[in-house]
Structures are given as C-alpha cells and as structure tokens.
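We emphasize that the prediction below concerns an isolated chain of 130 residues; any contacts that depend on oligomerization or on bound cofactors are therefore not represented. The input was used exactly as deposited, without trimming of termini.
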Amino acid sequence: MACCARFHEMLKAVGGSVTVVSSVAAFAATIGNPAYNASKTGTLGLVRTLGQAWARDGIRVNGLAPGLVDTKMTKITTADPDRLSERLKGIPAGRLGTPGDMAGVALFLASPMAAYVTGQTVAVDGGRTL
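Result of the prediction step, given as a token string:
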C-alpha cells in the first residue's frame, strides 16, 4: 500500500498500472498460517479499493495470485515426493506453476491488452481454486 501510494502521482502522469502480487491463499483458509492468509487476503481488498479509486486517474490496479509455483519458497513441498504428489492431485492442470507462468499474466495485466481491467486479482494456479 505504501509503495502504491508513493508512486501514485508518477503513475497518474503516465497512465500507468500496478500489479500487486498475492497468493491463492487469499481465496481460502490456510490451516496453520493465519498471518500469511490475512496478509494475502488484505491484498484483495487493496487491489479492489485502489482499482476503484485510481481508475479516474487513468491508473489500473490489479493483482496476481500464484498457486503452487516451483520456487525456493515451496521446496519444502516440491522436494518431498509424497507431499508433491498429494498437492498435484488438487491441481487440475496436473503440474506446478513456473515463474514464467506468473510472468505471462503479469505482462498481460501491465499491457494495453488489459486496458479495461482494473480492481481484479487473477488466480494463476492451474485450476486449483476451482
């Protein structure tokens, strides 16, 4: 929020866009990790609120909510074959996300192709939250 506010005038001057990174944890409860869930759920409200408030300034604000992506942060799951197998069962696409999957959606949201999209958070999770 502070970062968005800091750059508001510059974004307004150029008709820019903001993409806030969250997590699919924002869409459902996460057992054993309430602080993480609360922070990610908060980004949904931030994206909606800034998307609405800043649209008249020509600024689009959207969110990206990654699912299970093969990164250093997820190694505790991805490095354990049993845990990984169990998690993949819940992903209709049948695979982990990649940083490239996230980048593609982020590029779309920042591009003119998303000129009429604001206040939305896109789940990029292989269908996990369906």
